[in-house]
Amino acid sequence: MQINVSQQLKEAIGSTRSYDVDATVDIANQESHVEGRFSLVRTDRGILARGTLRTEIAVTCSRCLRSCPLALTLDVEEEYYPTTDVLTGAPLSLPDQSGYFTIDEHHILDLTEAIRQYAVLAIPMKPLCQENCTGLCPTCGHNLNLGPCDCPQQEIDPRWSGLRKLAMADNT
Question: How confident is the model at residue 33 (pLDDT cuts 50, 70, 90)?
């Protein structure tokens, strides 16, 4: 999503503009529809982009390996720095730190990469299709969410029988 901010860069510090977001962004190698609202605030150094966005991506459950949708809410807040002066066209010095976002020489602010980064960070390391996903049978690989498999029950090591009794007591 690209926004021309040349007029806002000429305005006073604190000037605000709001935009609705309704775009498609490549997140984790899949096209995802992103929607929400952004506000752009003029700062002494550039433009502060702030907004809450919603999207949904397909992930693989870490227990049953089934593909499932994952809804994400992204609270994005990033400052964008201009690379050229809006009045003179002269190049501007950029911050010393790394990982900042810039406004290009045509005064276009592109939110796409920030949205992508926030979405990738919001994806859980071990996503689940449902909180109580039972996973796969370790013997035959059957998805236990669909019902039990035909594998024979394995005998439990007698040293663990005390824990089995505790687990059975918790289920009653």
Answer: very high
